[in-house]
Amino acid sequence: xxxxxHDLSVRRQCGLLSLARSNLYYQPKxxxxxxxxxxxIIDKQFxxxxxxxxxxxxxxxxxQGYKCGRHRVRRLMRLMRLVPIYQTPNTSKKHPQHKxxxxxxxxxxIDRPNCESACKTDPLGWVMSE
Length: 130
Hints:
The chain is mostly helical. Helices cover 40% and strands 3% of the residues. Helix 4 packs across helix 5.
């Protein structure tokens, strides 16, 4: 795409492509040997315990004698696209014994300001407006 032998300068070619020149010169480094070793350890342990998140995995590695923190484990797990399996909370399910209270203002027409706050309910639950 960008050629140094072209008639246009490299700066102009990058400008036409909306590309920063730093991207042109960037050479990715890759992971270090230590990180690759940690990634193999994480991968083997994750196959045995797929519910381990970054915190449990970091504790497991520290128990094994490896010096690796939670944030590093989290970054490596994200790099390997490892997502732990866990049960989500069922917060949307209603309890069968909980009473459902009716919405008492459903059929009331609100035609002036503060009308709903001026309405009262009698002991039977009927809406009475003042």
